[in-house]
Design goal:
Layout (H helix, E strand, L loop, with lengths): L7 H8 L2 H10 L5 H6 L4 H7 L2 E10 L10 E3 L9 E3 L5 E8 L8 E3 L5 H8 L2 H7 L20 E3 L4 H4 L1 H10 L2 E2 L15 H13 L9 H13 L3 H9 L1 H10 L15 H4 L1
Parallel strand pairs: 1-6, 6-7
Antiparallel strand pairs: 1-4, 2-3, 4-5
Helix pairs in contact: 5-8, 9-10
């Protein structure tokens, strides 16, 4: 479920010191980082946001879309599908995905606990596919994701495996730009637009009058089908709305944002 309600203490952690954050965003190529925080809409703003590959893991449970965070444990079984068990013995799938304003990465399903080595060996190789895409297609999981495959920025949250030295070193060697573990606030991840995409996926996988999936295989098929069938307009609009969302949070000085009704008015988003 989308979390636009953000408490004052949380936002202070996420945006800590505005002057420091401005400097850090400037380091990754945003020519006017103050505009990022204030939500000023210019063509350059949107061009910068279009360079972002925003990634995030998600857990889908067999008995529904609940978030079992803080009460789960991983079970490893290389012969079966990816398994997750919580205290009530509900099984599930752990999946990584990424998005830009143009399309999606391929999904990666993970068995068991993941550390820095496994993250590098099993998840990050999807970036090779991302950089090799050169043509626009009707399939958002295979279409080119950037205007320039040599100029884009990789975003990930601060999971321990993401901040591991081996993962940071891999990114230095294999992607044009990325937010290293010192460049973004540790609690900023819930603000990224991919959280909204996961909410859409969850609603489609479990809702719309469907019965609950009866097996992990059925659950996996639903996730993959829904991921592949997303409308590219949703991706573009959620990415282009990010500067406005940030502006609203800053305007509220960290107070609760209960309703957010601003939308991007660029030509692509309104057509």
């Amino acid at each position: 479920m989308e979390q636009d309600g953000i408490q004052r203490k949380q936002i202070k952690k996420r945006l800590t010191c505005i002057d420091t954050l401005i400097t850090k965003w400037k380091n990754v190529g945003f020519d006017d980082p103050k505009a990022f925080l204030d939500g000023i809409r210019t063509d350059q703003d949107l061009l910068w946001w279009d360079k972002l590959l925003i990634t995030d893991p998600k857990v889908f449970l067999l008995d529904g879309g609940r978030n079992p965070k803080h009460k789960g444990r991983w079970v490893y079984d290389s012969e079966e599908l990816d398994l997750w068990e919580v205290e009530n013995h509900s099984k599930g799938l752990h999946v990584y995905g990424g998005m830009t304003s143009k399309g999606l990465t391929q999904l990666v399903f993970i068995n068991g606990n993941i550390d820095g080595e496994r993250y590098v060996n099993e998840v990050l190789p999807t970036l090779t596919d991302v950089q090799e895409r050169i043509e626009e297609t009707d399939d958002i999981t295979t279409t080119v994701l950037f205007d320039d495959n040599e100029d884009w920025i990789f975003e990930q949250d601060h999971a321990k495996c993401h901040d591991a030295d081996v993962a940071q070193e891999y990114l230095i060697e294999n992607v044009p730009n990325f937010f290293d573990k010192h460049e973004t606030p540790a609690k900023m991840d819930d603000l990224w637009c991919i959280e909204r995409i996961w909410a859409v996926i969850t609603n489609k996988v479990y809702g719309e009058g469907q019965d609950q999936p009866k097996s992990l295989l059925e659950l996996k098929r639903r996730i993959m089908k829904t991921w592949k069938s997303l409308d590219s307009k949703i991706l573009r609009k959620t990415v282009h709305q990010m500067p406005l969302r940030m502006k609203e949070i800053v305007n509220e000085k960290g107070g609760r944002v209960t309703r957010f009704k601003q939308y991007c008015t660029c030509r692509l988003c309104v057509e």
